[in-house]
């Protein structure tokens, strides 16, 4: 004789608790990139460690910085070639003022991918996530080679 099986009762939720889910669309325009980056950097600034680095140490001028970052991502994802600059320079300058650790990159990437997944889905969104991972790896490598990456 088989042992008795414990079966949990199925819990039915009232219809009112179900939310309709609208499928997310892919990144298509510069406005989409601006929308995502506004939300992402709001979270970065709320993060105790990252917010301190961006606002406390680097003292980022957000009205100037966000359009540059938007141009950077627009160039990567939409091929606009609108970014002019040296993206590594500010990170080297920051690392000379305060310790940057691999954990900071992990936090940045986690916020990036979480925010992106809440805003968009599709080929360009996936590419943005892969590019962010690649960029973080390159930055860590260059900071390490110059002795500016702090080991945890």
Descriptive account of the structure:
This protein is mostly helical and 152 residues long. It has one domain: Globin-like, CATH 1.10.490. The protein is built from 6 helices and no strands. It has helices spanning 30-46, 48-57, 62-78, 88-97, 102-119, 123-145. Helix 1 (30-46) packs across helix 2 and helix 3 packs across helix 6 (123-145). The longest helix is centred in the last third of the chain and has 23 residues, at 123-145. The termini are far apart. Residues 10-19 have low confidence and may be disordered.
CATH topology: Globin-like
Topology, number of strands: 0
The assembly state of the depicted protein chains is single chain
**Uncertain regions spanning at least 5 consecutive residues:** 10-19
Structural class: mainly alpha
Radius of gyration: 21 Å
The first-to-last residue Cα distance is 57 Å
- What is the beta-strand fraction? under 5%
Q: CATH superfamily assignment? A: Globins
How many separate domains make up the residues? 1
Give a short account of the largest sheet: none
Order of helices and strands: HHHHHH
Shape, principal axes of CA atoms: globular
Helix proportion range = 55-70%
Task: Summarize model confidence as the mean pLDDT.
Answer: 87
CATH architect. name: Orthogonal Bundle
CATH class: Mainly Alpha
Pfam families: Bac_globin
InterPro entries: Globin-like_sf, Globin/Proto, Hemoglobin_trunc
Keywords: Heme, Iron, Metal-binding, Transport
GO molecular function: heme binding; metal ion binding; oxygen binding
């Amino acid at each position: 004789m088989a042992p008795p099986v414990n079966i949990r009762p199925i819990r039915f939720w009232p219809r009112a608790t179900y939310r309709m889910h609208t499928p997310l669309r892919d990144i298509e325009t510069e406005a989409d990139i601006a929308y995502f980056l506004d939300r992402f950097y709001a979270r970065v600034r709320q993060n105790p460690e990252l917010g301190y680095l961006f606002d406390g140490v680097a003292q980022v001028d957000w009205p100037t910085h966000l359009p540059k970052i938007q141009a950077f991502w627009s160039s990567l994802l939409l091929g606009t070639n609108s970014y002019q600059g040296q993206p590594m320079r500010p990170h080297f300058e920051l690392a000379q003022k305060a310790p940057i650790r691999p954990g900071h990159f992990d936090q940045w990437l986690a916020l990036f991918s979480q925010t992106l997944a809440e805003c968009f889905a599709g080929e360009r969104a996936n590419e943005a996530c892969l590019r962010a991972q690649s960029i973080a790896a390159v930055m860590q490598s260059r900071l390490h080679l110059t002795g500016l990456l702090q080991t945890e």
